[in-house]
Amino acid sequence: MLATILKQRRLELNLTQQAVADQLHTTRQTISNWETGKNLPDVPLLIAISDLYALSLDTMLKSDSQYVQKVTTDYQLINQSKKQRHLDYALVAVILLLIATPFLANWLKTDFSDRLLTIIIIAITTVLVILSYYRSKSFFPSIPGTRPPLFVPRTFGVGLTINPNHPLGKLLWLTILLILIGSIVWGSL
Q1: Is the dihedral of CA 71, 76, 80, 86 positive or negative?
Q2: How many angstroms separate the Cα of 14 from the Cα of each of 11, 22, 171, 181, 184?
Q3: CB-based contacts of 23, cutoff 8 Å, min separation 6
Q4: Phi, psi (degrees; rounded to nearest 5) at 148
């Protein structure tokens, strides 16, 4: 186990927890938590520990499947968080565009007919629905072996929304999308 390896190697090198903490720019309590298995160092600190203790990463990692699982889980959470952040930025941009469209049309003094402006707004709303679907899908992931509820709390604001991970929920989201696309097509005829 990594905790045991860290403690043994520190003692072999005749280092105190405080000396290691000073070298790694952390606290003595952090070193203690690593050595008791309460916490595990992140990857950059593990590399610094490898250098300080003259231990290979291979030696440290192969001994602790729990640490490998923690790193894998952390990596997945970071990637998911990045995807959600990009999705949030896209949602904000589309909402701002939706709000700004009538004002821009008026400010630019373009000859938009009411019909064309309506089509543009419905098209932007369609993009908003698609992004909202993926945001809701990632916010309420499906759990294998369980049936998700049809309605879940909204990711933004107060109230409920349709769960895109529920079979009927997917159908309802698709129906909303098809209605919007149909409105665009009908409006352009």
Answers
A1: positive
A2: 5, 15, 65, 71, 74
A3: 48, 52
A4: -70, 155
Give me the DSSP letters along 26-64.
S-HHHHHHHHHTSS---HHHHHHHHHHHT--HHHHHHT-
Angle at 89 between CA 87 and CA 94, to 5 degrees: 95
Residue carrying the six token digits 């440290």: 60
Shortest CA distance to 116 belongs to which of 40, 188, 15?
188
Q: Which pTM was predicted?
A: 0.56
Q: What's the pLDDT tens digit per position in 41-99? A: 888 888 899 899 998 888 787 767 777 777 777 777 777 777 888 888 998 999 999 99
| 63 and 29 Cβ atoms separated by less than 8 Å | no
Q: Which residues pair with 160 in a beta bridge?
A: 153
d(CA 176, CA 102) in angstroms, rounded, equals 23
| Side chain identity at residue 161, one-letter code | T
* Total count of residues recorded for the chain: 189
Q: Nearest to residue 176, comparing CAs of 131, 141, 134, 130?
A: 130
What CA–CA distance (Å, rounded) separates 139 from 155? 7
Percent of the chain with pLDDT over 70: 96
Distance in Å from the first CA to the final CA of the chain: 69
